[in-house]
Design a protein that fits this description.
It contains 17 helices and 17 strands. By secondary structure, it is α/β, with parallel strands linked by helices. The protein has a nine-stranded mixed β-sheet, sandwiched between helices. A hairpin with a 2-residue loop joins β3 and β4. α9 crosses α12. The longest helix is centred in the first third of the chain and has 17 residues. The protein is globular. The structure holds adenosine-5'-diphosphate. Adenosine-5'-diphosphate (ADP) binds next to α1, β12, β13 and α12.
Length: about 500
């Protein structure tokens, strides 16, 4: 295999801020707190702010979805508007602007009645994917190109994220070869597959810059991998897995291997102000490493809120997740009866696959007072689960980085994880000297059962559990180190 650049937090270099001209335009389909479906939003909402000390400027662009509260965030209309062509149609857009509430990063919003004014990011409130999602993100990328062409923003580096901006690294070269591009893969599972007919809607000047447009499984994600000047993913472990072809089909693997010389992994950081047990706006009782009293009060609050038996002795295992197969639900549901019988309680928060939701609902009905399931997306409850649970269940089959295990460590909520991708990079097993959680492998029922049993056994030994919580809470996953790695990517 050729040169593979794997960047891990341990090889951080201290770099002096600001070299030459470094103006970054960060393109993301989701940005917390405005719009969030998963971890991409958390990263887009916190990484740019962490990069401000290092770069000349960084600005974000994202769609103005219908449910975003313009008043709450002071999102104001600008006098910048335009139109882009899709097939025969010319579709207008207007730019709105705000300052990100967590810092001083300007955020541009693309308003379009046709594509974004309805509520929902990718799906209706019932969880149905929008039929025109491909067109919605074609349009988004064409607007980004339009405003770059009109020099509305000053750009040296275009930072694209996931398939929603996967065409841009190719397209930007057609406009201004001086602008460099970085493509960050937050999840290789989602390609943004278009049909050749859909691609025909792009102006020829645009589609002629792309690869493999006649391929029936055309992938916007792979286009980003092919054309970006640098490609990274969100943990060294996941980068290695992709380069080893794990969970990658043969066609995609060929293209990943072609890109290996420019491929790296940088573990995500977290917003340590927003996810902070000492300050958390959604946590009723604040706590810290030195004073954990609030944590058990939060546990009581969580049990009451979820209608579970109010006994503080038995362990509570929390889960906050998109309901998809690869988050480990097929294993979890198999083990619920057994662990309820062992005295454990479970709190699940999630939305997604209706069949997984049905299984969790059924488990909650079968075990009243022991299992709770909240079907939906609920930010305050997510924080209460982190602050009130004893353990966090995250046995993903694969996980590019994962953020909830990082929030869990910070809240002393001990993660139980499969050794994969970012989970393996960020959680050390309790059997090792600096263990912070319970790590199992391979992805299977028996290993997960073993890790859960070990966790509950340890929970019952009070001083061991306290030490484990202390080690977990002492971990630092702020953006400091990872932002330096992104800065180094920008430099290179
Ligand atoms: P992914 O990006 O694959 O969904 P991550 O662990 O990287 O997984 O990030 C998920 C983010 O979305 C976390 O901030 C998590 O708390 C949040 N999240 C997921 N599901 C829900 C939900 N139902 N309610 C509130 N927050 C959720």
């Amino acid at each position: 295999m050729g040169a593979i650049l794997i960047i891990s937090p341990s090889c951080a270099t201290s770099s002096s801020p600001v070299i030459n001209s470094m103006n970054i335009f960060f393109v993301s389909a989701e940005v917390a707190p405005f719009s969030k479906a998963g971890g991409l939003a958390d990263v887009a909402g916190s990484l740019p702010g962490a990069l401000t000390p290092y770069v000349d400027s960084i600005e974000i662009i994202t769609p103005l979805y219908g449910q975003i509260d313009r008043n709450q965030y002071n999102i104001a209309s600008t006098d910048i508007s335009g139109e882009v062509s899709l097939g025969e149609e010319k579709i207008p857009y207007t730019l709105f602007k705000a300052v990100h509430p967590n810092g001083n990063v300007p955020v541009w919003f693309v308003e379009s009645d046709r594509f974004y004014s309805r509520p929902g990011i990718y799906t209706t409130t019932d969880g149905e994917g929008f039929e025109d999602n491909n067109l919605r993100y074609f349009f988004f990328q064409l607007v980004v190109l339009d405003i770059i062409q009109k020099q509305t923003v000053k750009i040296d580096i275009l930072h694209c994220n996931d398939h929603h901006s996967g065409l841009l690294p190719a397209l930007i070269k057609g406009i201004d070869p001086e602008i460099k591009s970085i493509f960050t893969i937050h999840n290789f599972l989602y390609h943004g597959h278009f049909s050749p007919e859909e691609l025909d809607l792009l102006p020829v000047s645009v589609s002629s810059l792309l690869n493999e447009t006649q391929w029936e499984n055309y992938s916007s994600l792979l286009e980003g991998v092919d054309h970006a000047d640098l490609v990274n993913t969100v943990s060294p472990g996941y980068a290695q897995e992709l380069l080893a072809g794990e969970n990658v089909d043969a066609h995609s693997y060929k293209r990943v291997l072609n890109a290996r010389a420019k491929f790296s992994g940088i573990v995500n950081g977290i917003d340590v102000e927003y996810w902070n047990p000492e300050l958390d706006q959604f946590t009723p009782h604040h706590f810290s490493q030195d004073d954990l009293q609030g944590k058990s009060k939060n546990k009581l609050e969580l049990l009451t809120r979820c209608g579970l038996d109010n006994d503080l002795e038995s362990p509570v295992l929390g889960s906050i997740s998109r309901l998809v197969e690869n988050k480990g639900f097929p294993l979890i549901v198999e083990l619920l009866d057994e662990f309820v019988a062992r005295g454990a309680k479970f709190v699940f928060l999630g939305s997604g696959d209706p069949s997984i939701a049905a299984q969790l609902r059924e488990a909650a009905l079968k075990h009243p007072g022991k299992i709770a399931f909240d079907d939906g997306f609920n930010e305050p409850l997510a924080h209460l689960i982190e602050s009130g649970s004893d353990m966090f269940l995250m046995p993903s089959r694969f996980e590019p980085c994962g953020l909830n295990q990082l929030y869990s460590l910070r809240y002393g909520t001990i993660p139980i994880v499969n050794r994969t991708g970012g989970l393996g990079d960020t959680v050390a097993d309790n059997g090792t000297s600096n263990g912070t959680g319970f790590v199992f492998e391979p992805y299977d029922l028996m290993p997960l059962r073993g890790a859960m049993n070990r966790a509950i056994d340890t929970y019952q030994i009070h001083h061991e559990w306290s030490e484990l919580m202390q080690r977990a809470m002492a971990m630092d996953f702020s953006w400091d180190q990872s932002a330096k790695h992104y800065f180094n990517l920008y430099k290179s």
